[in-house]
């Protein structure tokens, strides 16, 4: 590590620490090599003004294989919130798909994912408009034996709304009805109102809304939005 720190010092002296490509390569060497240090790689990362995808993926990969794999989730969340790393422009859509596809593979390497960690992944996909990936991850979560919570189901319903996946949305509706969550959770009800409307089932949307025992401003906004969406 002494030699590595000396190289890092030379980077700073020569201004290479301002070059994203160069500093990302340094992070990769430090995080993934046997002679490096993952904590030191994280320190270097924290000093980068605009980390690139390569730097994020390096730390996600390294932590997913470390004794503290949960920290991979931390860097994944940071990446989601970094508009510079994963811009939303239409031209970058394929780039984002590839980016999250790689991250999904890294998530597979983290042992015993719980519902909170699945929520991070699902929410990340939905926020970036990657509904097919979100619903695929939701199915994988169920297959792995993890029971979804209310937040997870709400996020999955948002994915159904984005994609127009009516059948999967209906399955989630049946799931929450059997557990009587719809009666207690206003956010699930609101998500169902929105999902049915965007899948072209305004009658079901109204039915869910009228059956909600609790409503808030988001519920009313969803219902008004549903009627507007259907041109009413």
Automatic annotation (TrEMBL):
Gene3D superfamilies given in the database record: Tetratricopeptide repeat domain
The residues bearing each PPR repeat, given as ranges, are 52-82, 114-148, 185-219
- Could you tell me the superkingdom of the organism this chain comes from? Eukaryota
- Assigned keywords, A-Z: Repeat
The coiled-coil regions, if any, are none
Return the InterPro entries for the record: PPR_At4g14850-like_plant (IPR046960), PPR_rpt (IPR002885), TPR-like_helical_dom_sf (IPR011990)
UniProt keyword annotation of Repeat present: yes
User: In the record, what terms sit under GO molecular function?
Assistant: RNA binding
Which example biological process does GO assign this protein?
RNA modification
Asked if the keyword GTP-binding belongs to this entry, the reply reads no
Q: Which Pfam family name is an example for this entry?
A: PPR_2
Q: Cross-referenced PROSITE patterns, in alphabetical order? A: PPR (PS51375)
PANTHER family associated with the record: PENTACOTRIPEPTIDE-REPEAT REGION OF PRORP DOMAIN-CONTAINING PROTEIN (PTHR47926:SF437), PENTATRICOPEPTIDE REPEAT-CONTAINING PROTEIN (PTHR47926)
Protein name per Swiss-Prot or TrEMBL: Pentatricopeptide repeat-containing protein
């Amino acid at each position: 590590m002494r030699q590595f720190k000396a190289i890092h010092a030379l980077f700073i002296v020569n201004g290479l620490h301002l070059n994203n490509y160069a500093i990302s390569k340094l992070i990769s060497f430090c995080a993934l090599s046997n002679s490096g240090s993952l904590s030191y790689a994280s320190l270097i990362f924290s000093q980068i003004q605009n980390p690139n995808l390569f730097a994020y993926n390096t730390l996600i990969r390294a932590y997913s294989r470390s004794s503290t794999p949960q920290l991979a989730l931390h860097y994944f969340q940071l990446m989601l919130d970094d508009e510079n790393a994963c811009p939303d422009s239409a031209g970058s859509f394929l780039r984002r798909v590839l980016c999250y596809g790689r991250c999904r593979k890294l998530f597979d390497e983290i042992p015993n994912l719980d519902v909170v960690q699945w929520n991070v992944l699902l929410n990340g996909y939905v926020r970036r408009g990657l509904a097919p990936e979100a619903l695929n991850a939701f199915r994988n979560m169920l297959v792995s034996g993890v029971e979804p919570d209310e937040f997870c189901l709400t996020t999955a319903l948002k994915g159904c709304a984005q994609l127009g996946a009516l059948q999967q949305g209906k399955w989630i509706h049946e799931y929450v009805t059997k557990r009587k969550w719809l009666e207690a959770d206003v956010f699930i009800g609101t998500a169902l109102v929105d999902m049915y409307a965007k899948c072209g089932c305004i009658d079901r949307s109204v039915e869910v809304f009228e059956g909600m025992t609790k409503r808030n401003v988001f519920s009313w906004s969803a219902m008004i939005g549903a009627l507007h969406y259907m041109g009413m």
